[in-house]
Amino acid sequence: MRNFIIHTKPQNQEQMTEFRTMINGVPVTAYYSQRTIDSVFLPLLHHLTALQQQKGKRVLVLLAAPPGCGKTTLGYFLEKLSRERQDLVPIQAIGMDGFHKRQDYLKSHFVQVGGQRVSMVEIKGAPITFDLQRLTESIQRVAAGEKCGWLTMTECFIIRWKTLCK
Asked: pLDDT digits over 85-107, tens only?
């Protein structure tokens, strides 16, 4: 498994917000334009706030995209942004990383990828490497409002959902 340090500073003169965090022990720096924050992220957070208030219960949002594209970073940034403003319901970014099948299982089981036999540990993060039953049960408990030990619970969640579909 590779670790990447992402530090890409935009080259244009647009006003940018720098966001620093740690993801799986790796320091990550991301930059978001003020235009994107104002026209995409804040409207999304206001929509989620209104939805949560309308429903009167937790709201789960699933975020799906290819591995390594910034789902985790974006989830943490939206969490930070939501907690800085009084007009938003604070969100909590929660992830799937704790739902991988056990490492010894991944090391001892193999799948066919491109006609080659590959250890599941080499494709960790692929749908087959997750304990989807346990993940589904946990999501159902969160959605039902139960306290299930999945981080600190708030009323709106962004789940950094790794790509589970081909």
From this structure: 999 999 888 777 778 899 999 99
The whole domain housing 55 covers 16-98+146-162
How would residue 165 be classed by pLDDT, with cut points 50, 70 and 90? very low
Question: Is 122 a member of any domain?
Answer: no
User: CA 9, 14, 15, 17: dihedral to nearest 10 degrees?
Assistant: -30
Residue 70 inside a domain? The answer is yes
Q: How many domains does the chain have?
A: 1
Residue 145, phi then psi, degrees to nearest 5: 90, 5
Q: 151 is written with which tokens? A: 């981080």
Q: Read off the pLDDT band of 9 (50, 70, 90).
A: low
C-alpha span between 161 and 50 (Å, rounded): 23
Asked if residue 132 belongs to a domain, the reply is no
Tally Cβ neighbours within 10 Å of residue 140: 12
Type of residue numbered 20? R
Residue with tokens 């799937």: 96
Residue 154 domain-assigned? yes
pLDDT number for residue 64: 78
- The answer to whether 52 and 143 have CB atoms below 8 angstroms apart is no
